Amino acid sequence: MIPAWNAVGVLPPIRPGKPGNDPDRSPYKAELYQLVEHFTSTPERLAIINGLLAYRKALHDAGIVTGFQWLDGSFMEQVEALESRPPNDIDVVTFFTLPEGASQQTLARDYGELFNQAKAKEKFRVDAYPFILGEPTTPYRVKLVSYWYSMWSHRRNGQWKGFIQVDLNPTEDLAAHKILEVKGQEGGLP
Prior knowledge:
By secondary structure, this protein is an alpha/beta fold. The protein contains seven helices and five strands. The longest helix has 19 residues, at 43-61.
């Protein structure tokens, strides 16, 4: 379950009521449909969710179906109240296992726009960062994960905050699309 934004408009870094060392903390594991339910409160947010779902479909079409994603950025904050603006995109680190028979080089050749930050942002409204699971643990790879965790655990002003983790499995997307359909049939957004 995704916790509510706290009094300062961010996801709490530690689940409210839990001790600081409790494992139920950021990144909060959530089902993709819960993300849709929780964060599609404006037309801008709906457009970003649709972009995320399109990005995930493109990953799935490339054979990338095993792993998980960390989701963050102003999309995970109550930025409308904090900065009087809507979110522009969603930040996504995709931690994935290479599809069978694929290499980093073949994925880059055949699906380069998915791994090009500027192209992914333009096409999908996703600030995308790939990370291949199962590779040797090198100091550089540890530094990358540490960087994302430390950057995403704070707002630019240094305030602690939380973020979300969703599974990469395509079945997650079916439920998310159903929630979007229901919202559309019920008259859409508030």
